[in-house]
Amino acid sequence: MQRTKPPFRADHVGSFLRTAAIKDARAKREKGAVTAEQLKAVEDAEIKKIIARQEECGLKLATDGEFRRSWWHFDFLCGLDSGHPMIGHFEFLAANTRVTPKMTIPSPTLLHFRFGRASISRTLYPDLDEFFDDLGKTYAKVVKAFYDAGCRYLQFDDTIWAFLCSEKERAQSRQRGDNPDELPEKYAQMINQALAAKPADMTITTHICRGNFRSTWISEGGYEPVAETLFGKVNYDGYFLEYDTERAGGFEPLRFVPKGSKQIVLGLVTSKSGTLEKKDDIKARIKEAEKFVALDQLCLSPQCGFASTEEGNVLTEEAQWAKMKMIVDLSKEVWG
Fold first, then answer.
1. Least packed by Cβ within 10 Å: which of 52, 132, 246, 263?
2. 309 pLDDT band (50/70/90 cuts)?
3. Is the pTM value of this prediction over 0.85?
4. For residue 8, is it within any domain?
5. How far apart are CA 283 and CA 330, in angstroms?
């Protein structure tokens, strides 16, 4: 029951703790002590090491650890109006791995929810549906650009679906002039527009995140308010879901996952602390999830990246890799 296409039984969200060499080079660059070219040379060397480490773990995918980024979302979104440098980042990754290269980018929902209607020109977009339409078209171009560069495993990282499960965030959305009850359908249409021309040999997943900065979080609440739309109406191939704490609620919302057609990657191993989970506890949680989704549609990963921003979460590199190795070992025990 192991999988030969992504998402894999043992997978991960994308980011890894920045190494000492990366942190040192970035600090020197900020002070003007090294050139951009010198920083890139350090990044290249450290990314090759992080790729090798993933392969040594037994993973069937590799990312660049997001080593060239400061933030998981701003770095991509700020370059969205021109030839995007992250296409080159992917090409470097692909040229230096023997396994499936995976690229992660922020979801288009990020360009709306946090600032809402109040931040969008009513002169340019008197009707907000036109804004969503343009954003969907823009991301369709993004998908094509990565595909043309050779990317066959792309992920949209998304905090917004989780925010729509949080009463606090929903209240703030109303204050910004939006109706959070209407947003799931609008977001589904926009994302599906971005995915509409996705070739059959390309996998696009999403990671639903509740916030991840130095081991802290932003939102809480189970997936129930968005589950029917998110799982049933959005055309992703797979979903990386946070399930490491009670903040994510139970597995009941997974009843909306279509049978046989989508993969659910259970984020049962926390990236927020170095404490190594017990294998039997993880297996028991997988059994619970099986009440709602068949085992063949399930995979395993950390609940989030280890360093959504360059500061990273509060754990050691040794603990990070111990968790990844355990996930790989567990996947073999559970899925054969």
1. 246
2. confident
3. yes
4. no
5. 8
What is d(CA 28, CA 42) in angstroms, rounded to the nearest whole number?
12
pLDDT band, residue 217 (cuts 50/70/90): very low
Rounded distance between C-alpha atoms, residue 82 and residue 263, angstroms = 33
Q: Respond yes or no on whether the N-terminal peptide bond of residue 7 is cis (omega within 30° of 0).
A: yes
Q: Whose CA is closest to 118, among 178, 183, 166? A: 178
In the numeric block, the tokens 């701003």 are attached to 74
Q: Which two tokens stand for residue 6?
A: 């992504």
For residue range 279-292, what is the model confidence (pLDDT) as tens digits? 999 999 999 999 99
For residue 312, give the nearest of 139, 127, 74, 67 by alpha carbon.
67
Output b/e per residue, 268-295; b: 16+ Cβ within 10 A: bbbbbebeebeeeebeebbeebeebbee
Query: Is pLDDT of 255 > 50?
Result: yes
309: nearest Cα among 196, 215, 225:
215
The residue range of the domain holding 223 is: 20-335
Q: What is the CATH number of the domain that holds 248?
A: 3.20.20.210
Kindly state whether residue 13 falls inside one of the protein's structural domains: no
How many domains does one find in the chain? 1
**Going by DSSP bridges, is the β-strand pair 103-106/263-269 parallel, antiparallel, or unpaired?**
unpaired
Q: What are the structure tokens assigned to 15, written together? A: 């980011």
Contact between 136 and 190 under an 8 Å Cβ cutoff? The reply is: yes
Question: Is 2 among the domain residues?
Answer: no
Residue 299 domain flag? yes
Longest dimension (CA), the chain: 58
Task: Read off the tokens for 123.
Answer: 């002169």
Which one-letter amino acid corresponds to residue 148?
D
Angle between helices 279-289 and 317-335 (to 10 degrees): 50
